[in-house]
Task: inverse folding
């Protein structure tokens, strides 16, 4: 067996491998949501280089708090638009850490958001993961919102009945109407007109 040249590291000494994972929980428009980020050393040796895990939120989400499973190993802070956590020492192999990331969800948040978590060492990206989360509520339920509408925007009867019938403002509909492009509201307003 030939000796190694100076500066060459044997392959078995490169056995540390960091990976990041992420899941999204239940999100509510105008309420709250939660992500769980995981960092694992899935290799055979400890990770001795600096390591940082971070997450920058998309529009419609605001960071609230970040809680690591091992506060002695990770120094975490909420930053503008997300969070950042720095390792405080080597990461043993195997090891697994979780980060609970609570966020506020805007009332006008998009119906879906895609969010990325990164693990870096210095300026190098070691691993990254993206998660797409659906945010229900408001117009994201397939409705046009407002007045109890559950369908798309549009009139159930797209004709003007003024001057034809005398109507009263006591007509209500329920949720069993399925009309393409139509919406059903809790009340319909008619005006009485005579010719």
Result:
């Amino acid at each position: 067996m030939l000796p190694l040249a100076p500066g060459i590291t044997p392959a078995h000494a490169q056995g540390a491998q960091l990976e990041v994972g992420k899941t999204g929980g239940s999100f509510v428009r105008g309420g709250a949501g939660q992500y769980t980020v995981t960092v694992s050393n899935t290799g055979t040796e400890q990770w001795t280089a600096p390591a940082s895990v971070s997450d920058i939120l998309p529009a419609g989400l605001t960071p609230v708090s970040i809680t690591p499973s091992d506060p002695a190993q990770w120094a975490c802070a909420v930053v503008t638009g997300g969070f950042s956590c720095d390792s405080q020492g080597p990461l043993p192999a195997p090891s697994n850490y979780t980060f609970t990331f609570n966020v506020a969800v805007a009332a006008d948040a998009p119906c879906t958001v895609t969010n990325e978590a990164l693990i870096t060492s210095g300026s190098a990206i070691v691993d990254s993961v993206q998660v797409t989360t659906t945010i229900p509520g408001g117009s994201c339920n397939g409705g046009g919102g407002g007045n109890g509408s559950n369908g798309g925007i549009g009139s159930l009867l797209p004709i003007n009945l003024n001057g034809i019938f005398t109507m009263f403002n006591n007509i209500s509909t329920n949720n069993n109407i399925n009309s393409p492009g139509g919406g059903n509201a809790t009340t319909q307003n008619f005006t009485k007109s005579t010719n």
Remarks:
- The domain at 14-134 is CATH 2.60.40.1510 (Immunoglobulin-like).
- The CA atoms of residues 52 and 71 lie 14 Å apart.
